[in-house]
Write a structure and sequence with these properties.
The chain is α/β, with parallel strands linked by helices and 332 residues long. It contains 14 helices and 5 strands. The protein has a 5-stranded parallel sheet, with helices on both faces.
Length: 332
Amino acid sequence: MIQQPYPWQKEQWQLLQQRLSQGNLPHALLLHGVEGMGKQHFAQALVNSLLCENRSEKGEACGQCRGCKLLDVGNHPDFISLSPEEEGKNITIDMVRKLATKLSISSQYGGYKVVLIAPAEQLNLASANGLLKTLEEPTADTILILLCSHINRLLPTILSRCQKLLFAAPPLEPTLAWLAEQAGVDSGIAPQLLKLGNDAPLRAQQLAESGVLEQRADLLKMLQALSRGEMTPVQVAEREKKIAIADILQWLSGWNMDMIRLQYSPQPAHINSPDLLEQLRPLAQQIDVQKLYKYFDKLIEASRLARTQVNQQLLLEETLVGWVRLFAKRRS
Ligand SMILES: [Zn+2]
């Protein structure tokens, strides 16, 4: 997959592409800025651009050439990635030494040798010092790209040897547009999320996702309580009244479909909510599949009604009454 930089990264992209076309790209680049600005994404696009044998005038990789294909399968001999083996661990001196050895050999395909070091703040004192020589006396046609979110954690000796490129807070309007159109974030909560996420678009997206996930999991917990008769539909409707009924109905419909699928296979190939599968499974076991199909029809009708002037609270209560009935035992 060819990655294009995010819309808020155009300026940095154009700057580097201009220098690339002039043949004076810095040999050591430090991409920095708070987390969630998409630096990793940008770096990947840049690596791809550098190793593409047929890039466009704007610097976009072609996706077809030998370089693009090898990079896509993670097998390009002129691309070296340096990252901790596990999150939170260090980039070791050993890794840095191996890098130096690899760089001493000339490029396999006669183009650039590209190194991505991320996150650079995971270089410890020994490995950072070990890297200095590589930064000071770069081998021919070598581009080192360092990523970091906390620039104050880098040694001054590293900083002074890199050309810094800042990914600062992008302008608000296009960011909100991106969040709404590309990231599917509700425009009503996007400004708040962006604020909480240090103006970083990807962080805002993450927050949106995590918030919704919590609400969704909460609702399922209440549905479980309903199925056991530990709560009433009125109580649940009251607790959920701050969440848009359209969202609730969408989640319910997805779960309903998942429970139908679970009736046919213990490990369905496709599932709407894989993260909630273990909660849905015991519920599905208690319900007759015919009832699930009927309830699905009711949910579709409720979704239609939700877009009308209907009393939303009542609609939700009715929908939840229908849920409780799924678990009613047949009279003997
Ligand atoms: Zn290419």
